[in-house]
TrEMBL record:
PROSITE patterns: PROTEIN_KINASE_DOM
Domain Protein kinase as annotated: residue spans: 2-133
InterPro entries in the cross-refs: Kinase-like_dom_sf (IPR011009), Prot_kinase_dom (IPR000719)
GO molecular function annotation: ATP binding; protein kinase activity
Organism per entry: Rotaria magnacalcarata
Protein's UniProt name: Protein kinase domain-containing protein
SUPFAM superfamilies per UniProt: Protein kinase-like (PK-like)
Length: 133
């Protein structure tokens, strides 16, 4: 059984942060409502499947689950979902603020370089799989 922790929306899409009661693990889900076009969701799902295993990219949970197939039968009533890991809540600003609190100054150049190199590495892997962001 699941419990909804938080409902969020961005870019007109609705998602929820949910927790499985048995293990308390948080995951994110996006529901495709019956009156919505599945095109954008299908593209997102396809991209997430292509990015399986890329570090730093949110991963699908149960990517082959029937709710992730986005093929509604004509007149079908099945709910469609994208079930994925919870994205980290850290922002670049939060990272900078934490560094300032911990060390009493702005981020050191070496840490900033390492951070940016990590981001570039993620983007490079995403591009190598044929996805442009």
């Amino acid at each position: 059984e699941w419990e909804i922790i938080q409902r969020v929306s961005s870019s007109g899409k609705k998602a929820s942060l949910i927790r499985k009661k048995s293990d308390r693990k948080l995951i994110a889900v996006k529901k495709v409502y019956k009156n919505e076009s599945t095109g954008d969701y299908y593209r997102e799902l396809t991209a997430l499947k292509m990015l399986k295993g890329v570090p730093g990219v949110v991963q699908l949970i149960e990517p082959e689950h029937e709710s992730n197939n986005f093929e509604r039968e004509a007149g079908g009533e099945a709910d469609l979902w994208i079930i994925m890991q919870r994205a980290p809540t850290n922002s670049l600003k939060a990272f900078m603020d934490q560094n300032r609190e911990k060390y009493g100054h702005n981020i050191e150049v070496s840490r900033a370089i390492k951070f940016v190199q990590n981001l570039i590495g993620i983007v490079k892997q995403v591009h190598s799989r044929g996805i442009l962001h």
